[in-house]
Structures are given as structure tokens and as C-alpha cells.
């Protein structure tokens, strides 16, 4: 392994707004550093299928504001097999690609770590997922945009919440992590927030909702992460509450993939731009098997290994905040 | 019944963006025409409970852009009874209110027609509902805003639709009417649109979806009105399709009350403003038991009776359009 | 001139949101009608430069929601000359293009009319301009989006308008026509609206503004069309008012090209889709030298000649509305 | 000075989105901590005029998402005089207010520091300004929202930028600080960014613009902070460039007060909520003459004195980023 001369960039896993801004930064920083750069379509799947194309500064014009990813994303069963990874490496070799930037979440980095070890190819990861559940970075690309998408949706629901005894249950993404639910709940003034990390205490929820209605609150909004453990998501939580309080008028909204799309926010674009440039600089500086992070506003490097084996925790001061603000 | 001197204005039924713009126009046009004007809170319910307050030009400052309704809306069981309506009339009489403007949908106008007959009080209706299902007007207040809300949501989902064989089912409002689903489906480029007026032909839907996937479409979006008859909404349609095609990756979004909120569009604000002014002018011109309509860009009057007993039909040329545009 | 077999489509003049939705509809309707279809880049300029490319259903995937125009637009000095038009025609002939759909404003249709006469080629126009100043159609593509852009901008300014005696002058597009200023002014609750069609009466404006400040209005917003005649736009109007009232705090916003961009509204997309399909149907039906219009919700045809020689007028009932609503 | 029992809260200086979220948090945290709380209207001006009203949890319902400030803001000449401050203090005393939370920028804190010294009243400041120019905090409330407002405006302009040799100059706020221009410029992919901190090098700008046009860039966007020193803002920069390159088509947009309005982003709402709660906790903990900051994601306290006498600097790594990304 010598100096990197030609970089491949790919996006993998669930889409996250800002991935395009990261791709743009990777491509332009590569060119700025006199490296060649190719885009690999559909993540590891495309690497196996040899779907690569040279990228120029112009290839990434006018994409900074676009949701989704111009490189497309895909899951790849093949890359979980030694044969698949062998084929992938042969394709890289054929194309002269001797360094990779992979943009995605923990699945993406797990694959990257194994591949890097097997074939001694330097790989740098950029965290792109709306869940913000990656250890080693304060923010992942897409999280801020998804937060704003949820908040704008809840704002609209609140506009309509003039009827008495109405309860809205809004399901947001997050199978294992409640970051999105917690922070969007605070930002939208939700009355209660149910996350995977904390088992729902229905007794407490009932007390709380009753108190709200006795205070003549016109309505209450409950944010439910899809990974809520006790009932298993908003529809089931709503059914349970409805059974307990037949007079309440309960309504369910499931935001679904809306949260993965949309034009990225300023914050996600700047973060993606900084991370993209830093990923190339890390390759130039002979780094490998690391994820770029943003910690305390500064760019950091963290080994894939650390990022994967540690678990990021909810900020307890934010959890506490909700009980103060929803009085 | 002589000349109207003091007008009561209320909003009733489901919230619709633009109701505030209509209230503002009613209040200011009343003042412009030297009438007194009071706001009645929570619709007919508040009329029975005597929740009225005098309105000035300033009471309606800075509300034209707000979703929801400052007068709040509510359902009223009481107003369905002769006793409730008697109480309501006594409250109006006590306050000197001798004319009403009611903003809402067909439930609102049904109540208004009976009340007007029983107590000989002139009432003018303004169509406010996101469903656009009222006969006698091309557009109801809130419809254009809801359309844009749905379209923006579908745009975000499309951003993320890069994976192969993915099927999105998005449920939009419309228990009995498919206007919202049809028009937002065209505007968002949906691959298929399921409405209450047309029984879903699953065979045809399957053929269509298969064709799309064979063409290597990266994903397909199906808009489902909540009143879809055969399966009963998006979740059940998705389950049925999933059973037929276990390999497809199906996802469901339920927009719910998001569609009733949000800042009204320019179109809804202008329509609401025109209708509000016209409602007052109609009262000044001794009209009663009519709904204000917007037909071919001009303000019209239609008797409540006609508005209620006729059913608005989907525009067949729009139905046809979808088959041309989704090829 | 026989039956059309291959259609060329272009966009010309100033960008308008929704042009892409129209291009998509033209392409897909052509294919639906078994016609071949090519996209001509950069309007008439590209026709002279022979910049054409075949279009398929897939070429127009995922563009319905995009602002701008994938075909790009340009002004063409060459097309004003017989030589330029000769070259353009030769290029069309070479490519086998025997019918055109041109999307733009009056400059676009003027060129189309002359070209159609000279070379006996059928041309159908689609009105695309944010100014809505074309005779023969109630709405032009882009107008509704631009309206909402202006209204959202004014909403934000109103949020901040808590200081006393503050006057905001906001310049919107419209060199010769005040449609955008008038309708967005009504929708945003502007205190005064200055349009090219009506000479600004500064005396009346002063009286009005004084009245507002005496009523303790926290601020006033004046929409100024860039074609305002007496002072020549918002900066000069503001200077004049400032000189008269040195104590007022006057601020100017110039929206500029923001108004030409953005994702098109539902209304503009549906209108564009209908017009695009209708343009192809008109060509199939042997029509030429006509503009597609939307009049009273129905598609109409109007000769270029009529569209060009008549002038659309401001709706007097909307002009009157502002004086009622700003009391 | 003993334990605080009754808190007054006010907003002062230019509006910033998120101020309402901060007011809500201050009020609810005060109630949570068993303190009484009053809202002071129109900043220091209202303190002198005795415009105070008791606040309850309900007073701040449904304001978290609203732009502007429900307490209104105003400049106060009176508070610069000893007599004015004496009157203000007497009013506070009369009402029993023995602690203050002031939300605003450096002008606000300068007044607070003097007032606190003169009358020994504990005051805690919350940084609320779109300029983000306060030393001692990474982010001020309103900055993130303003960034997104600018970015969305530039996105729309870019949509329309298909013509060749077109140059857009967009003026954003920032009389003395370029934070808003720099970060929004990176996020919107602007070709050049002119800030007050760095003298504009027109030679370099010309070289850069020429290079862009030679590369057949369809257009270029230059962000200009209003405090740009050499020419004095976007209109003058545009005139200068136009004179040098008469063939370029230059256009100017002045965003103005649009940047101060709009519904706050998730980030601004969460920051405002945290700061509001922390401000009350600081008062309860006997703190005075401090500004609440957010540094490295944690709440900090900084003496007014330090916040006022130090100057925050542009992040040099962001300045450098633009030269890499605009190649």
C-alpha cells in the first residue's frame, strides 16, 4: 500500500439528506489534491457489479441541495460473502482504485472494516444516517434535516389541534435509537416522547395525559419512535390508550420515508462538506479504517472498530428537559 | 327579518388552512359595511355555550398566514337537538346578532339550513374543507394547501426511492371523495392513485406494478385515499400487495392530520379573502341560506339545499391524465 | 404539411417553475400518441446550434418537482434574423422534426408565429411565465409558485415587524404587469400595492401610511412591482417616502430571481401536465400557431396572433378587495 | 440581594427566530422552580413604560414554532439615560420583580450590565441574534434559521441560473460579521463570498469569475454581507463588476428582513429551550451579569463583560473550505 492515487466514493444503507453534499465535497477535494476519483453506483452492490464512472468537478455541480444520492444506495447480500468481496476488489484493481470513501451507517462501516482488512485497501467512512446513532460523532449527515422534517410535520398537526380530548400519536424513525424522537419532540413541544432506550411506563403516560386534559389542554401530541419496545410502535400505543380511554379521540400519523428525503438543511450541508474534504485529506495522510466525526465542532478520526463497538447514549439533560417544558 | 346589523362568524367541522383568512375578511368587510361583528368560539357548540366576543379590525391582524382557526372548531351534538338550537338562538338574540357567516363543510351547512329555517335568521356559508367535496364551488378553502402538503411529502419520499423493487403506499385524507388523492397524485407523479369513487382493480394494479419493475423503475408510489373501498386504506392495500409479491419491499406512510394544518397557500388566502368579503356583501344584500362559491374564477351563490343534495364528481379528464403521464 | 411524426420541444425566455412538468407531459404524451420526440436545448438558440437529443419516458423521470428547466432556456438574437431561422429550420428538417411545442412567454410566441409562417411548420405554445401576463389563459405556468414564494417571503418579514413606525418596501417582479404584485399583496395582507398599470398616487399613499401609524399599527408593508412607473421601483419609492417622513424606519427587500425558482406548486404542476398533454393532442389534431390556455378550468386554444395582440387586464374586483381588507 | 422570587423576561434588539421558544422555556422553567414570572413588553422601553404582564404556562402555549417575539422588541433611547433606568427600576420594584432574563444581542447585554451594576439586580442574558457574532457561545438563537432562509433563497436562484454569463449578487445581513454569509455561502455552494472581516480583493474576484465563465459555468453566485467594506454592499459590488464586464448579465437580490423571520428550525428551538431553562437555573443559583452560552454542546456561563469585550472570529477552516469546494 503506497500513496493513494485514485479514490472511489460510494453511498450505502438508508438514504440520508446531505449525502450528495458529501459526494460533491469528496470529488472536489480529490481533484483539489490531484487525485483521480470515480463514483461507484449502488454501494457495495455496484462495486461487485463494476458500476463505476469517472467523476469531474462538473459531475457534482448543482447537487448540494438535492435529497437522496446521485450514486444511489443499495443493500448488498453479495458483499457479505468472501466471493462477493473478492469480485469487488478485482473490479477496483482493474479500475486502478486504491482508496475508498464510504458514506453510510454502521452496516456500511462493518463491511468496510472487513474489506479493508482482507485486501489492505485504505477506507475512510463518513457518517450518513438520519438516526444519529453512530458513536464517535456528535452529528451524522441527515439528522438535522430529518429533525426539521419531523418538526414541520408536528407543527402542522398542532395547527389543527383545536378540538378537546384529542390525542395525536406520531411515529418517527428509529428502530434502536431515540435521538430523532427525543430532539424533535423537544423542538416541537410534544407532550410525551416514547423511545426505544426507555421502556414505556403506561401508568405514567396515562397520569400525564389525564392531567393535560384536566387542565383543558386542547390536545396532546405524543412522539413515538418506531422502535418503542412495549407496544411496538404508534398504532399499537394508540390502540392501547384508546382502550383505556374510550372517550379520547386518538389519531395516528406515520411519517415513514418522508424523513429520509428533502433538501438538506444548511447544517447538514456544511457538515457534509467538511467531512467530505476531511475524508480525502485523511486518505492523503495515509489514514485507513477510520470514520470521520464532528466532535465539539472539530473534525475527528475514530477507528471503525471503536465506532462500531460502542453505543451512543441519549443526552440525559435533554431527557430531563421535556419534563420541565411540558408542564 | 330586516336589515342585518350585527354579524356572528364561526368555524365548524374539520380545520382547513385559510379559515383564518376567511374570518379576517368577514370581520373587515363587516366593519367596512358599518356592521358590528362578533366571533363565536368553537362553532355551534360555542353558540350554545354563549362564547362570543366582539371583533375589531385589529382582532384579525396577523392571522392571514396562520393555519388552524383562531375561533376554534368543534363538533356539537347539542346543535342537532331542538333544545340546543333554541339555546343557541337565545344567545344570539341576547347579543343582538341578526346574521351569521358559517365557515365549514356539509355538516356545517346542514346545521345552518335547519337553524335558518327554524329561527328565520339569515345565514351565509363559506366552503372550508381540505376535501374539496362541496358541490357548487370549484374550490373549497384549504384544498390547495392540503394538495401542496401532500405533494411536498411525496417529493421527499421520491428522493429516497433509489432502491429497486420498492413500493410506497401513501395514505391521504378523503373518506368519500378522491379529489385530494387524484390531484396530488398527478402533481407528484404517482404511479397509481386509488380513490373511493372507483373500486380498486387489484389485477390491473398488479399488472401495472409489474410493468414498472420490469422497466427497471427504481420504485413506485401509490397514493391511497383513506376511503379506498376494497381493502380499506393504505395499510391493508400494502398487506395485500405484499402477500402477492413477497419480494417487493413495501412501505406505508399515513399523513393524517398533517394535511389539515400548515400556513395557507396564496391561492387559499385569496379565495378565502374574496369569499369572506362576498359573504358579508350577500348578507347586506338580504341573502340567506346560501353558500358562497368560486366558479370559473367568479364568486357565485348557491342555495344550501343545492350544495347539500348534489355530489361533486371527479374530473374525468384528470383521471385519464394519470394513465398518459405514468407511462 | 401532413401528419406530425416527430415533435421537438423547447423552453424559452425567463425560467418559470413548472416548465419541467410541462416538458415531462409533452414527452410522455408524444410517446403515448406514438410520436417521436426530441428535446431542443437552450430554446431557439439551441435550434440554430443543432442541440437536440431524443427523449424517452425515462428522460423525464423525476423532474416534475424540479424548478428551472432541464432543457435550459436562452435568449436568441440569431432567431430574430431570417438567416438564423433558416439555419434552425434546416436543423429541424435534418432531424426529421415536423412539429414543435414551445414553452415560454410572448417573446417565445412572437418568434414561433413568424417561424411557423415562414416554414409552414405546426407550432403549439404553452404559456410559461411567472408574470401571468398572457392574454388567452387564466393562468400561466409558474405564476402560482412565484405567488407563494413572494407570500412566504412577506410572511417572514411580517414576523419581524414589531417595531413602531417601520415601513417595508418589497420589490417583486413585473415590468409591465402587476398580477404578481396584486395577488401576492392580497395574500400576504400588504398595506399597499404599487403596480405598473396604475400610476402611484403618492399623496394617497402618504395619507394611508399616516393613518396606519396613527392607529398604532406596528408596521406597514408595501409591495412594489419592479415596473412601478412614477419612481421606478422599491428603492426609489422608499427614498421618496423617507424624505417625506424622516422619522419612519424604511427598509427595502428586492426578491429578484428567487421568484423564478423553487419547486413548482401542485397547481402549477397539474396545469403544466394538462397543458403538455393538450399541446401534443393539438398537434395530432392538425392545429398550428396556437397557444394552449386554461380558461375556466378547461383547456382552450387561442391563436398566437390573438394572444399577442391583446393585453390581459388586472381583475378590478381584486384591486377593490385591497381597500376593504387593509382597513 | 437575596433569593430571586419573581422573574421578568424581555426580548430586545433585532428579532431572531427562536426568541419565542426561549421565552416559553424561561416561563415554564420559572414555574417549575416555583418562581413567579412576568413578561415585559417591548424590551427596556416597556420596562420604563411599565408594560408588564403575569405569565402562566398557558401564556406560552403554541408559540415554540412562531417567528418574531410575542413580547415584542424595541430600541430604547430612554434606557441609555440614568433617569430612564431609574424609572425602569422603580417599575420592577413596584411589581416585585427581583431578577431578569434578557434575550438579545450585545446592545441588550450592554444595557443589562450597567443596569445590574447600578441597581444590584441579578440579570442573566440569552444570546438571540441571527448574526451569531457573540463571543462566548458557539451559536446564537436565530442563526441556524437565518442560515436556512438564505440557503433556500439561493437554491431558488440557482434553479433559474441556466443562462450563460449570468452573475447573481445576493446581499445577506451582517454589518460587522460575516458568519451568516460565510456559512450560508458554503451551504449553498456559492462561487464567492464577500464578508466584512476580509477586504474584497476585486482583482482576485475578477480572475475567479472569468475562470468560471471560461469553464462554461452557466452562472455564478456571489454572496455579499451587507457590511462588505470596499464597495459597501451588493448593489455597489454589482455595479463595479458590471462596469468591468459589460457583457455579463448581473442581477441583485437583497434579502433584508426576510432573514429575521420565519418559523425557527429544530436546532434553534432546542438551543433556545435549553438556554431558557438554564437561565432560570442560573438565577436560582444566585448568578448575575452572565450570558448563557452553548459551547461544545454544553451550557456555559460567561460574564457579560467578557462577552462584550471579546470578538468572535470567523472559523479559518471554513474560509479555506470555500476555495476547495468552488473549483
Tell me about this structure:
Four copies of one chain form a homotetramer. By secondary structure, chain A is of the alpha/beta class. Chain A folds into two domains: about 5-140 and about 265-310, Rossmann fold; about 145-260, Phosphofructokinase domain (Rossmann fold), CATH 3.40.50. The first copy, chain A, has helices at about 20-30, 45-50, 80-95, 105-120, 145-160, 180-190, 200-215, 235-245, 265-285, 305-310, 315-325, and strands spanning about 5-10, 35-40, 50-55, 100-105, 125, 165-170, 190-195, 220-225, 250-255, 290-295, 300-305. Chain A has a seven-stranded mixed β-sheet, sandwiched between helices. In chain A, helix 1 (about 20-30) runs parallel beside helix 9. The first copy, chain A, is elongated, with a radius of gyration of 22 Å. The termini of chain A are far apart. The interface between A and D is large, with 44 and 44 residues.
Short description:
Chain A is an alpha/beta fold and 327 residues long. Chain A is built from 11 helices and 11 strands. Chain A has helices at 19-32, 43-48, 82-95, 106-119, 143-159, 179-188, 202-214, 234-244, 266-284, 304-309, 316-325, and strands at residues 6-11, 36-40, 52-54, 99-104, 123-127, 166-172, 192-194, 219-225, 249-254, 290-295, 298-303.
Distinctive features:
homotetramer; 327 residues; alpha/beta; Rossmann fold; 2 domains; 7-stranded mixed β-sheet; 4-stranded parallel β-sheet; 11 helices; 11 strands; 41% helix
List the helices and strands and how they pair.
The structure is a homotetramer of 327-residue chains.
Chain A: E1 6-11, H1 19-32, E2 36-40, H2 43-48, E3 52-54, H3 82-95, E4 99-104, H4 106-119, E5 123-127, H5 143-159, E6 166-172, H6 179-188, E7 192-194, H7 202-214, E8 219-225, H8 234-244, E9 249-254, H9 266-284, E10 290-295, E11 298-303, H10 304-309, H11 316-325
Parallel strand pairs in A: 1-2, 1-4, 4-5, 5-10, 6-8, 6-9, 7-8
Antiparallel strand pairs in A: 2-3, 10-11
Amino acid at each position: 500500500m503506497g500513496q493513494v492515487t485514485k479514490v472511489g466514493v460510494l453511498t450505502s444503507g438508508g438514504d440520508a439528506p446531505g449525502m450528495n453534499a458529501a459526494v460533491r465535497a469528496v470529488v472536489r477535494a480529490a481533484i483539489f489534491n490531484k487525485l483521480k476519483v470515480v463514483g461507484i453506483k449502488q454501494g457495495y452492490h455496484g462495486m461487485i457489479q463494476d458500476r463505476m464512472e469517472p467523476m469531474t468537478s462538473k459531475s457534482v455541480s448543482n447537487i448540494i441541495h438535492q435529497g437522496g444520492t446521485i450514486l444511489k444506495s443499495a443493500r448488498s447480500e453479495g458483499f457479505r460473502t468472501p466471493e462477493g468481496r473478492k469480485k469487488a476488489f478485482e473490479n477496483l484493481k482493474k479500475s486502478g482504485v486504491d482508496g475508498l470513501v464510504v458514506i453510510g451507517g454502521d452496516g456500511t462501516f462493518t463491511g468496510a472494516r472487513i474489506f479493508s482488512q482482507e485486501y489492505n485497501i485504505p477506507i475512510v467512512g463518513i457518517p450518513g444516517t438520519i438516526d444519529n446513532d453512530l458513536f464517535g460523532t456528535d452529528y451524522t449527515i441527515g439528522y438535522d434535516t430529518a429533525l426539521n422534517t419531523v418538526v414541520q410535520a408536528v407543527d402542522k398537526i398542532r395547527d389543527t389541534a383545536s378540538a378537546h380530548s384529542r390525542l395525536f400519536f406520531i411515529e418517527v424513525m428509529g428502530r434502536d435509537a431515540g435521538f430523532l424522537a427525543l430532539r424533535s419532540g423537544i423542538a416541537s413541544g410534544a407532550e410525551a416522547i416514547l423511545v426505544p432506550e426507555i421502556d414505556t411506563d403506561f401508568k405514567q403516560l396515562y397520569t400525564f395525559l389525564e392531567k393535560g386534559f384536566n387542565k383543558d389542554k386542547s390536545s396532546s401530541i405524543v412522539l413515538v419512535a418506531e422502535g418503542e419496545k412495549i407496544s411496538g410502535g404508534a398504532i399499537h400505543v394508540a390502540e392501547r390508550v384508546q382502550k383505556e380511554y374510550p372517550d379520547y379521540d386518538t389519531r395516528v400519523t406515520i411519517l415513514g420515508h418522508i424523513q429520509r428525503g428533502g433538501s438538506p438543511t444548511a447544517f447538514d450541508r456544511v457538515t457534509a462538506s467538511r467531512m467530505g474534504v476531511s475524508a480525502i485529506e485523511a486518505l492523503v495522510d495515509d489514514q485507513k479504517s477510520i470514520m470521520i466525526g464532528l466532535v465539539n465542532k472539530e473534525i475527528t478520526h475514530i477507528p471503525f472498530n471503536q465506532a462500531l463497538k460502542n453505543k451512543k447514549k441519549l443526552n440525559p439533560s435533554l431527557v430531563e428537559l421535556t419534563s420541565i417544558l411540558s408542564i
